[in-house]
Amino acid sequence: MAKTKYVFVTGGVASSLGKGILASSLGKLLQERGFSVTIQKLDPYINVDPGTLNPYEHGECFVTDDGAETDLDLGHYERFLNVSTSQANNVTTGKIYLTVIQKERRGDYLGKTVQVIPHITDEIKRRIQMLGETGRYDVVITEIGGTVGDIESLPYIEAVRQLKWEMGQDNAIVLHLTLLPFLSASGELKTKPTQHSVKMLLEAGVQCDILACRTEFNIDDDMRRKIALFCNIEPSAVVEAVDADTIYDVPLFMKDEGLDREVLRKLNLPTGQEPKLIEWKEFLTRFKNPTGEVNIGLIGKYVELKDSYLSIHEALVHAGVKNDVKTNIIRIHSEDLEELSDEEVARELGDLDGILVAPGFGSRGIEGKIKAIKYARTGNVPFFGICLGMQCAVIEFARNVLHLHGANSSEMDDTTKFPVIHLQKDQVDVVDKGGTMRLGLYSCKIKKGTNAFAAYGEQYISERHRHRYEFNNSYAEEFEKGGMITTGVNPEKSLVEIVEIPSHRWFTAVQFHPEYRSTVLNPHPVFTEFIKHALIFRKEKSSPAKKKKTAAV
Ligand code: GLN
């Protein structure tokens, strides 16, 4: 196989311009042309991984098959490319320094002064090339987090400079994403910040090869030529990245702008077949032409920030499209429900066609989640619990159906008389917080004739995990008798993976995180079933004649 080529994606002028979406879109287009592509994210923070970060800091923590806790951009990569990423796809400054310091302690650099250049930059370069060296990829796209000029990202830019130099023109290029701000007073898009940003890259010794300019309005040829002239690039290498209604439009916009052609030309690769994006376009057509809508309540404690539940949000969107409806996601703060009476909760959640209780850690907002679950269970409203959402469903059932007063998870109350959720055995001696949960892909055996089986259509599945606590199996019989049954179990550890209430129209709660595996081309089956049942419920609500009895429990 030919040598792997590298595209580095950097950002300038402002943060949050969408480097991850740009990288994913480019990856998608190259993939459609028949290239094998992967995307890597380099994050310039000192945490070893984002696993210990509050979602308010950095959005959700994404989990890979092999159990890496990673930046949420890896979720975009997977959703766009429909391929799995791994540990190697997310590198942080923390990981780099940890490795270098461990090597230093081992004596690998004996006699030498360990410095940012060359030791840190060498480690960055090694991590960048690790994916390429597997021989599995024609192109590795490496996104450098942060904005050019940040102190934190300097070693990364230096590593890019060195790699570009070592690998040569045709093998490594830089795609720089900037912003063309619109000044309403003069009614113009301004190019100066972009010029400065390119200059700042140049000061670090890096000439960008392609410029993507984020803009609210289309840019004309004159502006393209002007930007090209000031930034030492060809006009064909100035790519307009105009604001899109949905992130899923961006690959098509980038195709129209010829980004993929330009990248291939610069990397001296054959252009391959024109990207047809047939399934992608089909998805978009359905996305933009829904035949109805459904209201889903997302109950969580980080709801102010959309990115905190990004994968759940996207999985709900994918599942809506699969059902040809628009999913209206209504974010409800679990803390806001805590002081409400049952009637007030019913009023607050009354317009919802389905309720999803989100994952989380710690006790804040937990009682609100439990109240929402009580409403869903007793009101026969389709319910989907994920991870902590499942654990809360178990607690609610224990308290209100099995009358185990004060039942709780030992995470929230380690003195509870009824620890229906408790710490996994192999977590008891764990002291370090980072990377020590039950993480990544584990298998689950599903009972036939259940909601889970209806969704997956098979008995053996595997899903990604991120938790320390689990259902306490000593209560299993009591729950079965009471009407909440285990429908999915991890065969190796008998760990409960899925619970359901068969007398309810659709009450499904999972210990794993199905949201991480939903992609544009493969919406997740449990999310799809959830939306399907929410839709049925919605239709029934609007035709009262057909209204069903409420749940039996
Ligand atoms: N805090 C719970 C646990 O550690 C749930 C985790 C989660 O929702 N991801 O088990």
Provide the descriptors you would attach to this structure in a database record.
37% helix; binds glutamine; 22% strand; nine-stranded mixed beta sheet; alpha/beta
Characterise this structure:
Helix 4 packs across helix 5 (116-132), helix 5 crosses helix 6 and helix 12 (310-322) crosses helix 19 (525-542). This protein has 19 helices and 23 strands. The model has no long low-confidence stretch (mean pLDDT 94). It has 553 residues and is of the alpha/beta class. The termini are far apart. Strands 13-12-14-15-23-22-21-18-19 form a 9-stranded mixed beta sheet, with helices on both faces. Strands 5-2-6-1-7-10-11 form a 7-stranded parallel beta sheet, sandwiched between helices. The chain has a 3-stranded mixed beta sheet with strand order 16-17-20, with helices on one face. Helix content is 37%, strand content 22%. The protein is globular. Residues 359-361, 387-388, 411, 466-469 line the site of glutamine (GLN). Glutamine (GLN) binds next to strand 19.
